[in-house]
Amino acid sequence: MSKVMTKAVYTTVESPLGELLLVGEGSPTAKGGTALASLSLPGQKGGVAVRDGWVRDDEAFAVIAGQLRAYFAGTLTDFDVEYASGVGTDFQRRVWQALDSLPYGTTTSYGKLAERLGIPRAAVRALGTAIGRNPLLVVRPCHRVIAADGSLAGYAGGLEAKRRLLDLESRSRSGN
């Protein structure tokens, strides 16, 4: 993430989970916003905090902020966000791409995701570590990965936030 932080811009967005911190590269993208490098929840394990030299630029994140508001309102099920390049290892990016393909309102287990990616059972812990290092909570849906027994496990934003995201998607999907 250090490559992105040299020209970091940021904003905050209010959400039902608290104030989200969005950080990105300073140049506009083809989608009319800023490439997103990080989305942190309040109290997130390993979350990003605003640093000296960063520039607040609410307009640079207007597109993603609007998408986040629509998601939390239950009217958006698929984010269309440009991510900052150069973030994560090859393995992490492979896992994160798989997270991006998890359908709204569904869940999968760590084991099933590993199987889908061709990751041996002995390396499921590495998969969990890659998921835990996802810098884009909410928009890259790592909250949709649960334990094999259906229980909630491991979420950098905390299990209560994971539960709230899954409940939101479940209610929106069922039309309630």
Automatic annotation (TrEMBL):
It comes from Streptomyces longisporoflavus. Signal peptide: none annotated. Residues 90-170 form the Methylated-DNA-[protein]-cysteine S-methyltransferase DNA binding domain. The keyword rRNA-binding does not apply. Residues 9-81 form the Methylguanine DNA methyltransferase ribonuclease-like domain. SUPFAM superfamilies: Methylated DNA-protein cysteine methyltransferase domain, Methylated DNA-protein cysteine methyltransferase, C-terminal domain. This is Methylated-DNA--[protein]-cysteine S-methyltransferase. GO terms for molecular function: methylated-DNA-[protein]-cysteine S-methyltransferase activity. The keyword Methyltransferase applies. InterPro entries: MethylDNA_cys_MeTrfase_DNA-bd, MethylDNA_cys_MeTrfase_DNAb, MethylG_MeTrfase_N, MGMT_N_sf, WH-like_DNA-bd_sf. One of its GO terms (biological process) is methylation. Its EC number is 2.1.1.63. Gene3D superfamilies: Methylated DNA-protein cysteine methyltransferase domain, Winged helix-like DNA-binding domain superfamily/Winged helix DNA-binding domain. It holds the Pfam family Methyltransf_1N. Keywords: DNA damage, Methyltransferase, Transferase.
